[in-house]
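Late entry, written up from scratch paper. The run itself happened at the end of the previous shift, but nothing got recorded in the book at the time, so transcribing now.
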Amino acid sequence: MSRVRIGRWLLTLVLVGGAAMSCAFDWSGNHLLHPLWHPHARYHAAALISLSYWTPFFYVPLFLPGSSHWAGIPGHEPRVMGSILYPNLVVVGFCVLLTVIGWWLGRDASPQ
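Output as recorded:
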């Protein structure tokens, strides 16, 4: 196995493992689902977890020279009315919008 392939597998393991552990730990009984946490604190934590997952899609390429939001063939990005439209950013934007709307709708709710 080549050095590059080992590096790719290692990075994949770290990224997938980190994502899985983050979900498992944040949504466990000693964090977000802890019975002693105030319900409103849980609510804000859930919204922040969602936003912390989705928002990096918008800015990570700014920190990685040579990277792009487009996963296809360079120069073949879809365009709408002459402007590049990245489909993955549309989906991410929709998820962020739903998170913000959900937070806004429930921000004044009292515990039941």
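The helical segments are 3-26, 39-54, 56-63, 87-106.
(Scratch paper discarded after transcription.)
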